Amino acid sequence: MEMEIIRVKDLAVSYKGNPALFDLSVELESGRLIGIVGPNGAGKSTFMKALLELTPKDKGEVEIFQEPVKKNKKRIAYVPQRSNIDWTFPITVIDTVLLGTYPLLGLFHRPGKKEKAWAYECLKRVGMEAYAKRQIGELSGGQQQRVFMARALAQKPQLYLLDEPFVGIDMASEEVIVRILKELKGEGNTVVVVHHDLSKVEKYFDDLVLLNKTIIKAGPVCEVFKREHIMQAYEAEFQFQSFLQEETFQQSVNAEQV
Ligand code: ADP
Ligand code: MG
Q1: Does the residue 250 lie in any domain?
Q2: CA 20 to 30 Å from 234, out of 29, 111, 120, 225?
């Protein structure tokens, strides 16, 4: 049964008076693979953080699972942008995955045999079990992202929020993660992915939220992923690109004249 799993109304977020998001209202359905797409600085990460109350809102309401966010944090796994993680922190791969089991444990309980076996299973699912004892900082970008995927799996959530999971990783890791995200959806979970590369949007997602400080368009990929909407969301970037093309054109004209 599909329902509105995320409901955002009139959201506004600013940093020291600079608006990052405004007039943002959107409803996202459960059981879908949803892409949040927009140019650099569009507020995609801010949107995800605002959903999780990791950044203060100026105004607006957010409901997840039709309740205030804090009632359902255990059911939500968040994988932040890789660039925001301190990779020098001394922790092994298996312990990183075990962290995912903490929300399921009661207060003052430590993970035991059962949790460790489950963490291994999650590592296996991302193809990283051979690296269990390694330090997280020794791994490649793609391997690190797979371990963070395993940590999210270990939490047994129903909603996954991933911020730019494919940036700076190898193709094999990207394929592993995409396959798992599709499987998770098949199992009835909802997956929301911040993504800025337009080339694979149609291949990866069911629904799309085109964002640039506010919602440009949201809905099924076939309705949203259209030239007019993309142009609107990426307006500034396109203008810059055509400016560059103009420049090169002028230069080649000048060169011919010489
Ligand atoms: P995106 O993820 O789409 O690239 P962000 O949500 O990271 O965009 O940022 C949106 C805007 O808010 C950008 O202009 C960015 O510089 C600004 N911003 C983001 N985080 C902060 C912060 N912690 N302090 C001040 N400005 C920020
Ligand atoms: Mg971002």
Answers
A1: no
A2: 29
**Is 241 among the domain residues?**
no
Q: Find the 115 Cα to ligand 2 centroid distance in Å.
A: 32
> What is the number of structural domains in the chain?
1
User: How confident is the model over 123-177, as pLDDT tens digits?
Assistant: 999 999 999 999 999 999 999 999 999 999 999 999 999 999 999 999 999 999 9
CA of 170 to the centre of ligand 2 (A): 19
Q: Of 187, 188, 148, which is closest to residue 165 (Cα–Cα)?
A: 148
* Ligand 1 neighbourhood includes 209 CB (under 6 angstroms): no
CA-CA-CA-CA torsion for 115, 116, 118, 119, nearest 10 degrees?
Answer: 120
Q: Is residue 222 part of a domain?
A: yes
Q: What's the pLDDT tens digit per position in 56-105?
A: 999 999 999 999 999 999 999 999 998 887 878 889 999 999 999 987 77
Which DSSP state fits 134? S
Identify whether 243 is part of a domain.
no
